[in-house]
Amino acid sequence: MSNRKVKVYCPATVANLVCGFDILGLALQDPQDIMEVWEKESPGIEIIPDERYHLPVRPEENVAGASLIALIEEAQLTTGFTIKIDKRIKPGSGLGSSAASSAGAVVAANYLLGNRFSKNDLVRFAMNGEKVASGVKHADNITPCIFGGITLIRAIHPLDIVALNVPDLFVTVVHPQIEVKTSDARQILRKEVQLKDAIRQWGNIAGLVTGFMKNDYDLIGRSLEDVIIEPVRSILIPGFDTVKKRCREAGALGGGISGSGPSIFMLSKENKEAAACEMIMQEEFDRLGIEYKTYLTRINVQGILVEETR
Amino acid sequence: MSNRKVKVYCPATVANLVCGFDILGLALQDPQDIMEVWEKESPGIEIIPDERYHLPVRPEENVAGASLIALIEEAQLTTGFTIKIDKRIKPGSGLGSSAASSAGAVVAANYLLGNRFSKNDLVRFAMNGEKVASGVKHADNITPCIFGGITLIRAIHPLDIVALNVPDLFVTVVHPQIEVKTSDARQILRKEVQLKDAIRQWGNIAGLVTGFMKNDYDLIGRSLEDVIIEPVRSILIPGFDTVKKRCREAGALGGGISGSGPSIFMLSKENKEAAACEMIMQEEFDRLGIEYKTYLTRINVQGILVEETR
C-alpha cells in the first residue's frame, strides 16, 4: 500500500446551455473546487469536509462519498479513501458544485488505481452523487466536468457522450446569493410540453450544436433561445429578464440560467462584451440589493486536472 | 420580352430524417421532377400538367402555381409564366413531390428574372405551395430541394436555414404504393409530448447533427431514433417495423419514415449495405402483396439544377 496522494482541480460547469436541457453542458476555468484524495488501508471512505459549508460527512449522504462507493463496489476494493474538500464552487449556485465533488472524487480515485476505468465509467459512478444531491441521476454537469469543453449527452441509457467543438468564447457568470434547490426547480416544470414548442426547441438545439461545430457565432447567438424551461424557471430568479436583455444589447451572443439556477451565464465572442456583461450583472444585483459574485472566465477544455502530491 | 425557356431538375427530398421532425431534410439524386418554364407576355400563370396525374391546373390550387403567385406579387410583375411539368416523383409518396414542383417553379422563374431573389426568398414563396398541398406552410422538403445536401431549418419565423456538412452516404428508398395524406399523418399526432420524450428526442437531434458535421457514422446510426412521431405514424405503413429491423441488421446506419410517409428510407455507409436494404424492401413488399418502387441513390448536393434551353 502506497501513501500516494493527489490533488484534483474540479471545474464549475454550466448545464443545459439554454436550449439543451439535460443534454448540453460546458466546463468553466473559474471557479474550481480543489480536492485532496489519498488511499487508506482500511475499507470505507473518510471525508474531511470544507468547514465553510455544513455538508454531510457520512459517505452515503455526501455526493463525493456516494460516487466513491459506486467506484469501490465496481472495483471490488478492500481498501478505502480519504477525501479533503476545499469547496470554492458554492453549493446551490447552479454551477455544478455537487458535480465537481462527485466527479473529482472518482477521477482522483481512478488515478490512484492506475486509471482502470474509462471516463464514461467515471461519469456513471459520479451520477450517484447527483442522485444524492438532487434526487435525479443527471449527468449534464458531471460530463463537462470530467471531459472538459462542451459536451453532449445524447442518451443516458446507455450513456452516450459526445465531445463538441469548442469555439473561442468568453463566459460571464453571476451567482446571486439566493437559494434555488435543483429539486424545486425540477418540480415546477410541466411534465408535458406542446409539440410545437418542442419543435422550436429542437431547431434551436440543432442550431446551437451546428454553431459550435462550425464556429458560427451568429448562429450560436440565434440558437440561444429556450421556449420550454426558461420561461418557467426564470420566475425564480430576480433580475433575470433585465440582465439577459441588457447583456444581449451590450453585444453578448446570449445566455440564460446556468443549470437550474440561480446563476446566470452569458457567452460573448470578445472580452470587451463579456466585461460589459459583468458590469451589467453587478449593477442589476446592486440595484436589487441582492448579494452576488461574478466570474469573467473562459471555457475549460481539459476537465478535471490531476496533480500528484506527497 | 425574350422567349427564354428553362428546364429545371427538381430532386426528391426526405424530410424529418427520423428525429428531426419539421427541421431536417436532405435532397436525393433520384427521383427528380423535370419542369419547363418560360415567360409569357400576358400576366398570370398557365400550367401544362403532367397527364399521368390529375393535378389541379388552376394556379391558386396548384402547388407550383401558388408558389409562383407569391413570387409574381413580390416582384410586381406584369408578365406571366407558362409551366410544363414532367412529374417523376409520385404525389403522395412522402418524397417531397409537391415541394419539388413548388420549388422548381420559383427557382426557374427567378432564373428568368435574373436571380433577383435569394434562396431564402424562394423557400418563402414555395411554402405557399406546401400550404396548398397539406394545409401547412412547412419548409422541410422545399429547403433541401432548393439548397441541396442536408439542411436544418432552425426557425420558420423568421426563416433561418443552415446548411449542414454532407457525409458520404447511400440512401435506399422504398415507396409502397399506398396512400398516406400529409394532412392525415399530421392529424394523428398528439399536440402534447412528454418532456422526457422531448429530451430524448433533442439528444438524438443534437447527436445526428454532430454526426453529420463530424462524418461520424456510428453517431449518425445511434442518433437515428424517433420516440415521438415514428411510433404513431409507422402504424399507417405496413411492413415498416420489419423493413427497418432487417435493414439495420443488414448494416444500414438507420432510417425511418420519409416525411409523412408512406416511403421508408435507409442510410448506409457502403453501397453493399444499401443494396441489401433494397433487396429487403423488395422482399417485404412482395410478401405483403403491395406494389412498390425502390431507389438506391445518393445525396444530391447541388439542389435544383437550372438549364437554359431554346
Quick overview of this protein structure:
With 310 residues, chain A is an alpha+beta fold. The first copy, chain A, folds into two domains: 5-165 and 300-309, Ribosomal Protein S5, domain 2 (2-Layer Sandwich), CATH 3.30.230; 170-298, 2-Layer Sandwich (Alpha-Beta Plaits). Chain A has helices spanning 63-75, 97-112, 119-134, 142-147, 182-187, 195-214, 217-223, 230-233, 240-249, 271-288; strands at 5-15, 24-40, 44-48, 80-86, 150-155, 160-164, 170-176, 192-194, 254-257, 264-268, 292-298, 305-309.
Question: What is the element layout, followed by pairings?
Answer:
The structure is a homodimer of 310-residue chains.
Chain A: E1 5-15, E2 24-40, E3 44-48, H1 63-75, E4 80-86, H2 97-112, H3 119-134, H4 142-147, E5 150-155, E6 160-164, E7 170-176, H5 182-187, E8 192-194, H6 195-214, H7 217-223, H8 230-233, H9 240-249, E9 254-257, E10 264-268, H10 271-288, E11 292-298, E12 305-309
Parallel strand pairs in A: 3-4
Antiparallel strand pairs in A: 1-2, 1-12, 2-4, 2-5, 5-6, 7-10, 7-11, 9-10
Helix pairs in contact in A: 1-2, 1-3, 2-3, 6-7, 9-10
Q: Helix and strand string of chain A, N-terminal first?
A: EEEHEHHHEEEHEHHHHEEHEE
Low-confidence stretches of chain A: none
- Using CB atoms under 8 Å apart, which protein chain pair has the greatest interface? A-B, 38 and 39 residues
Structural class of chain A: alpha+beta
| Continuous helix count of chain A | 10
Number of strands of chain A: 12
CATH topology of the largest domain in chain A: the name is Ribosomal Protein S5, domain 2
Radius of gyration of chain A: 19 Å
- Helix percentage of chain A: 25-40%
Taking the sheet with the most strands of chain A, its summary is:
7 strands, mixed
Q: What's the architecture of the largest domain in chain A, going by CATH?
A: 2-Layer Sandwich
